[in-house]
Amino acid sequence: MHKKFLILLLLSVHALVAQAVSGDAMTLKQDTELASTVLKRTSAPKLRSSIALIYDEQSQRPLYTKNAETVAPIASISKLMTAMVVLDAQLPLDEEISISKLDMDTLKGTRSRMNPGITLSRGELLKLALMASENRAAAALARTYPGGTEAAVAKMNAKARELGMKDTHFLDPTGLNSGNVSTAQDLVKMVQAARGYAAIHEATTSSSHLVERAGHRPLRFNNTNPLVKSASWDIGVSKTGYISEAGRCLVMQVNINQRPMVIVLLDSWGKRTRVGDANRVKKWIEGSLTTRVRRS
After folding, report:
1. 292 lies in a domain?
2. Distance (Å, whole) CA 68 – CA 280
């Protein structure tokens, strides 16, 4: 009886293992089929961004590339890396930090409502740097990093190397310096890493933030990516960027029909081009998924 039971047990285990392997193989096959369906579609999106990459996280392969290996300025997309190194340092997010004249932009002369002397928590500065792309907030975060701005930028470059971003280099924490460069391929890795931070997810997908100030009217800051307000988009991470050398940029980690994707759009010169391209990508992917379901 004991021997018979052991044999039956071994047969059951073998069946379960075979079923699991078969399930994994089926999932892999489905992932490959979807990616192939998207890649074979003749109506590929006509994107106006000079550099673009659509990466399917499930099949771990690009569905669309356009100059994805080109090294180019990335503007405020840099702030995702600034945020990651600040969070990695585990600095207290409730610590109050005052904006200094040292945080003002002397390179591009950009303006800000965050005047020197205004005091916010590190957590609020993090949110404003990511959501509203506030340059003074990002500068203050780096200035108050252990060792100062130079140490923060060095850590940003070190983390880029850790993530395998071989064509990426940072010179400043804001992205105002055109020497902050990367490729669409590298930025996929950075966006995926940023998605692992709850604080970055929360900040980049918030539509707005109200800064309360004693004795003054509150300041409302809005997300620079209007897509976060759209119910049709399921966004995990979002960041925009702009300087004249980089054009208008947008990176996002999204779920389209519950399928995780990373979208990288760089060097979009029209004010609405990056958002228009993102919507064209979404429509293309959704159309591909619908086509595949109908064929099934």
Report:
1. no
2. 18
